[in-house]
């Protein structure tokens, strides 16, 4: 399977999944379920498919978040809301947000229904071994509505790829924070300020990890990846692509290309509708 197509699929499906992390509907649903406002909803809702796991498990699977930040919200969240109720709240948030962002006409379109069925076929071909977040999502019931079927499939496929990416990072010997720094330095669209704020690291921790990366020859004093650092990031992306091929091989190249086309169109519509904050998250690709 061509790596370019695999990356097109990842980019096309990501906003469909990730919009729920920024939609105001999500916090409303999580607080209604019993959680405190703020970051608790993110950590608890995303890890809920794995059950009432510990802070250590959440930090290990999410990988690049400060474990101290995770521990402020988990396991306290499970005393306020059970995982099952949070999964229902998350699905309700996805439903409301997608209806608002895409509109009734797009949700009723044959193209969205086609994308949902193609994504579902690919997601069902994901093998759960060694992929805890994907495995938890795969065990959840499938929604019947096409837009929710597509969102659920995109979530499975995103976590499947993410689990594989974590394996690649571990194999490369990068800590979660080191991986985050090299990602922001790669120019792939993640801003340092947002990375610090959302992942819970202090500037001192960031500077110390940057110094470690300079000692490894991966980062220069300007905070830019060295030639060796760029080679590592490219190798990590290639390893991630290879580990993510199974669902696309099962779907087939023609149907995978069709899904990439459909998902890209839907994602552009979501972004145009304001599914992400206007500033502070993404930077233009270099």
What does this structure look like?
With 286 residues, this protein is mainly alpha-helical. It has one domain (3-272). The protein is 70% helix and 0% strand. The chain is built from 16 helices and no strands. Mean pLDDT is 95; it is low at 282-286.
Question: What layout of secondary structure does this protein have?
Answer:
Blueprint: H1 3-18, H2 24-33, H3 40-47, H4 55-62, H5 67-71, H6 76-80, H7 83-107, H8 110-124, H9 132-138, H10 146-172, H11 176-185, H12 192-199, H13 203-215, H14 227-243, H15 246-251, H16 253-272
Helix pairs in contact: 1-10, 1-16, 2-7, 3-7, 7-10, 8-10, 8-16, 9-10, 10-14, 11-13
Characteristic key phrases:
mainly alpha; 70% helix; disordered C terminus; 286 residues
In summary, what is this structure?
This protein is 70% helix and 0% strand. By secondary structure, the protein is mostly helical. The chain has one domain (3-272).
First-to-last CA distance: 26 Å
Instruction: Give the count of structural domains.
Output: 1
Strand count, sense and closure of the main sheet?
none
Radius of gyration: 19 Å
Low-pLDDT runs: 282-286
Q: Look at the structure and give the mean pLDDT.
A: 95
Number of strands: 0
Shape: globular
**Helical segment tally?**
16
Structural class: mainly alpha
Task: Give helix and strand order, one letter per element, not per position.
Answer: HHHHHHHHHHHHHHHH
Estimate the strand proportion: under 5%
Share of residues in helices: 55-70%
């Amino acid at each position: 399977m061509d790596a370019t197509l695999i990356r097109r699929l990842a980019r096309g499906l990501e906003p469909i999944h990730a919009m729920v992390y920024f939609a105001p509907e999500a916090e409303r649903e999580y607080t209604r379920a019993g959680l405190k406002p703020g970051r608790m909803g993110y950590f608890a809702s995303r890890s809920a498919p794995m059950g009432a796991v510990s802070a250590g498990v959440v930090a290990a699977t999410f990988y690049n978040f400060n474990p101290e930040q995770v521990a402020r919200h988990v396991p306290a969240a499970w005393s306020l809301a059970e995982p099952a109720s949070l999964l229902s709240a998350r699905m309700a948030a996805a439903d409301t947000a997608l209806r608002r962002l895409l509109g009734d006409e797009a949700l009723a379109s044959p193209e969205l229904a086609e994308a949902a069925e193609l994504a579902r076929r690919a997601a069902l071909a994901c093998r759960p071994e060694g992929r805890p977040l994907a495995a938890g999502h795969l065990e959840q019931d499938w929604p019947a509505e096409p837009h929710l079927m597509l969102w659920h499939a995109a979530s499975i496929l995103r976590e499947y790829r993410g689990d594989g990416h974590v394996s690649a990072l571990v194999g490369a010997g990068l800590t979660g924070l080191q991986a985050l720094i090299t990602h922001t330095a790669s120019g792939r669209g993640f801003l340092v300020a947002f990375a610090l704020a959302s992942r819970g690291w202090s500037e001192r921790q960031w500077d110390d990890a940057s110094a470690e990366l300079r000692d490894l020859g991966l980062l220069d004093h300007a905070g830019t990846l060295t030639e060796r650092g760029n080679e590592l990031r490219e190798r990590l992306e290639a390893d991630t692509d290879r580990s993510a091929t199974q669902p696309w091989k099962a779907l087939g190249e023609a149907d995978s290309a069709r899904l990439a086309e459909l998902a890209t169109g839907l994602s552009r519509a979501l972004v145009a509708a304001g599914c992400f904050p206007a500033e502070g998250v993404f930077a233009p690709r270099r």
